[in-house]
Structures are given as structure tokens and as C-alpha cells.
Specification:
The complex is a heterodimer of chains A (46) and B (346). Chain A is α+β, with helices and mostly antiparallel strands and 46 residues long. Chain A has a domain of 30 residues. Chain A contains 1 helix and 2 strands. Chain A has a two-stranded antiparallel ribbon with strand order 1-2. In chain A, 30% of the residues are buried. The mean pLDDT of chain A is 75. Chain B is of the alpha+beta class. Chain B folds into 3 domains: 86 residues; 85 residues, no CATH class; 128 residues, no CATH class. Helices cover 39% and strands 23% of the residues of chain B. Chain B has 14 helices and 14 strands. In chain B, the strands form 3 sheets. In chain B, strands 8-9-11-10-12-13 form a 6-stranded antiparallel sheet, with helices on both faces. The chains are: A alpha+beta (46), B alpha+beta (346). At the A-B interface, β1, β2 and α1 of A face β2, β3, β7, α10 and α13 of B. β2 of chain A pairs antiparallel with β7 of chain B.
């Protein structure tokens, strides 16, 4: 819900929807990269 | 079963039946508002007699409930309750119609917000902005905030003309005000996760064990602002990114996770192309269209303190856009830029 004032100026009520799903998805994907990165690092050292 | 058009007309015609006696003189009308990324929402406005401000209640979600089997009387009752609960606008909004015309009133409240330039091109045609790669910085007047979020009015060209100021003036004020009103926050992902889970009741020791700290160059960092709303614009404060890059010891890739925040990682954490694939997948599965920022990844060059697209170039994006222009124009021809547009019966 927002408000509309005279002259049709919209006063938007802005909020952040649940961000847990988005951030967890990034965390999961980047954890894979991290593992890949560690593997590559070990290979380099070997 | 009513279709969406019929549903809106039903609400307009019958809403007063569920409003209490004191609101029987209110004016009920339909309108459309275009939100971020061209998302059009359909609203019913209930303007109390003698009031210059009215709640604008979006019907799209209520129609979904009705479509899923909710009784229309119950849905109407809910809309009526929301209307009556919000009929008296917060005090700070009451005189906004008049105050908004006064530049001295708004100048300390102007903030900047990052949006996708291409997906908001209709809005940008009528609003001051500055482009940054495939993004645009637009400007809003922030007139309130509380624990649930912030209240804003998007600045349009006609407002700028009314105030007699230029885009540069608005931009300079926004750069100054935003870092004061909505200061940049940078937290490790694990810190954010620990906070979120603790809020949901997870004991601290379990949250600590689940999200233990890692070396700086293996971490993800969430860049936002103090309100966590529209925080992606914080990535344009180069000094903040510079501090993070120094801590990590590399340049940064910036992943535009939403208009509310970005994620920064070390450039050791993958190729820009693989990270862009990740962004596209998360956007497609987790992020509302209205909150998406971009499908592309940026590189922050710590030495030059600049941000640029990393997985593509503006030339490539512009070529793709011109291929799709006809299709895009067809889909947008019915919409309008953000603002309230009265609806008329067909």
C-alpha cells in the first residue's frame, strides 16, 4: 500500500522483502567456488 | 469467476459497503502505478472527504487470493480494513502536497537509488538521473522511515522544473545526503546470516558454529545502507569499497543481488562470466522482478577506484537492446512511468 497526494504524487512505502532466500542462494553458489578455489590452490602447490 | 478487470471494477463499485459510516463520503477510484523495472500495479484509492492524501491499495495480491479460492466477501473485508486502518495518513504526509513544492523542505531529504537503466527507460525519460554502466542513479525525496521501511517520492523532471534546479544540483545533494541519512554498511555474509538466524530465535552458539568466520578473501560481503532498503546505490561510494578491497587485498567483483544490496567478493572467487551466470540464476529463482537490479557483474578496480562491467561491455549490451527494441516497445506501450494514473471504465 502507498499513499497518493493531491496532484497524483505517489508516496511509496518501500521495504525489503525477505532477503534470506537470495543471500542463502549466493552463499551456496559461492561455497562451491570456494571449494573449487581451494582445490585449484592445492593443485598449484602440488 | 471474475477476471482481473471485473474484479477491480467490483472493488470500486462495492468497497463502500464494507467501509464504516464515517467513510461513506470517501471517493473511491482505480489507478495504476508503475514501480521499479516497469512493474505495473493496479490500485484502488480511497480518498476521505476533505483530505488531500489517500491510501492507494494494490489489488494484484488480493486478486491472486480470490483466484486461489478465497471468498470475495472476505477479500473485500480485508481491503476495507486496510483502507480504514490507513485512511488517516501519518502526520508527516499530511502537508506533503504543499511542502513538496518548497525546495528548502526537500533539499536535505533527497537520496539516490540505483536501478536498471534499460528496464526503467520509460521512467528515466521523465526523471533526472545519471547513468553508471547498465545502471542509473535516480533520486527520491525520503519523507519518513520506521522499522518497516522508508517512505519516498520519486523526483521527476516536472519537480525539478518547479524547483528551478538542475540534475547536477540534485545529484550533488543526493550524494551528500544519502551517506548521512542512509550510511553505507558492509558486513560479511556470515555476520548477516548470524543476525538473521538469531532474529528467528536460533541460539547464538549454533549460529556462530554454522557461520564461522573465514579468511577475508574467501568471504562474501553484503553492501547496503542502514535501512537495508534501496541499499545497492552504496556501491557508488568508492571510498567504502576501497576500504574493503584493502582489507581483502584484491580488486572486487560486485554482484548486484537486488536493488537493496550488492555482494562483493575477491576477484579470486571466480570468473566474471561464472559469477554472472550465478546472478542470472538467483535473479530468475529468488528475486522479485521489482527488486532485481542487473544480470551483470562489476569489477571494482581498487587502484583506480572505479567500477565497470566485468562480464560484458556497454557496447555489447546496447547491441543486444537494439535487436530487442521492437519486442520491448510492444510490451511497454500500455504502461506509463511511475506515478498514479487514473483508470477509466471501458
Amino acid at each position: 500500500m502507498d499513499y497518493v497526494s493531491n496532484g497524483n504524487v505517489v508516496i511509496a512505502k518501500e521495504s525489503r522483502s525477505d532477503k534470506a532466500g537470495t543471500l542463502l542462494a549466493y552463499d551456496m553458489y559461492l561455497a562451491k567456488n570456494r571449494k573449487g578455489g581451494k582445490r585449484k590452490e592445492k593443485e598449484r602447490h602440488a | 469467476m471474475l477476471n482481473f478487470q471485473e474484479f477491480q471494477e467490483y472493488v470500486e463499485m462495492n468497497l463502500k459497503e464494507v467501509l464504516s459510516e464515517e467513510y461513506q463520503d470517501a471517493v473511491v477510484s482505480l489507478n495504476e502505478v508503475t514501480k521499479n523495472n516497469g512493474t505495473v500495479l493496479h490500485a484502488v484509492t480511497v480518498r476521505p472527504e476533505d483530505s488531500n492524501i489517500a491510501p492507494n491499495i494494490y489489488l494484484d495480491g488480493y486478486f491472486k487470493k480470490y483466484e486461489e479460492g478465497a471468498d470475495i466477501d472476505i477479500v473485500m473485508g480485508e481491503i476495507g480494513r486496510v483502507a480504514m486502518d490507513n485512511m488517516r495518513a501519518p502526520e508527516e504526509f499530511a502537508s506533503i502536497g504543499r511542502d513538496f513544492q518548497n525546495f528548502d523542505f526537500v533539499k536535505d531529504k533527497i537520496i539516490m537509488v540505483a536501478v536498471n537503466a534499460e528496464r526503467n527507460r520509460d521512467l528515466l525519460a521523465g526523471a533526472p538521473h545519471q547513468c553508471r554502466e547498465d545502471l542509473a542513479l535516480i533520486y527520491k525525496v525520503m519523507i519518513g522511515d520506521n522499522k518497516d521501511g522508508i517512505a519516498t517520492i520519486t523526483i521527476k523532471n516536472e519537480h525539478m522544473a518547479m524547483w528551478g534546479v538542475t540534475t547536477e544540483t540534485i545529484h550533488d545533494l543526493a550524494m551528500e545526503n544519502t551517506k548521512e541519512i542512509l550510511p553505507v554498511t558492509i558486513q560479511s555474509m556470515n555476520e548477516v546470516m548470524r543476525e538473521m538466524f538469531a532474529k528467528d530465535g536460533m541460539p547464538d552458539e549454533i549460529a556462530e558454529a554454522m557461520f564461522a568466520d573465514m579468511p577475508a578473501n574467501q568471504q562474501m560481503y553484503v553492501i547496503s545502507n542502514a535501512s537495508k532498503v534501496n541499499g545497492a546505490a552504496s556501491m557508488f561510494y568508492e571510498d567504502a569499497l576501497s576500504g574493503l578491497a584493502d582489507r581483502i587485498g584484491t580488486d572486487l567483483f560486485i554482484l548486484p543481488s537486488s536493488v537493496h544490496e550488492c555482494i562483493a567478493v575477491s576477484t579470486d572467487m571466480g570468473t566474471p562470466e561464472s559469477l554472472a551466470e550465478m546472478v542470472q540464476e538467483v535473479n530468475g529463482t529468488q528475486v522479485n522482478l521489482e527488486e532485481q537490479l542487473s544480470d551483470h557483474v562489476y569489477r571494482f578496480d581498487a587502484k583506480a577506484k572505479t567500477i565497470s562491467l566485468a562480464d560484458t561491455t556497454m557496447e555489447q549490451l546496447e547491441a543486444k537492446v537494439s535487436e530487442n527494441t521492437q519486442e520491448y516497445d510492444a510490451s511497454q506501450s500500455q504502461s506509463q512511468t511511475e506515478g498514479s494514473r487514473p483508470r477509466h471504465h471501458r
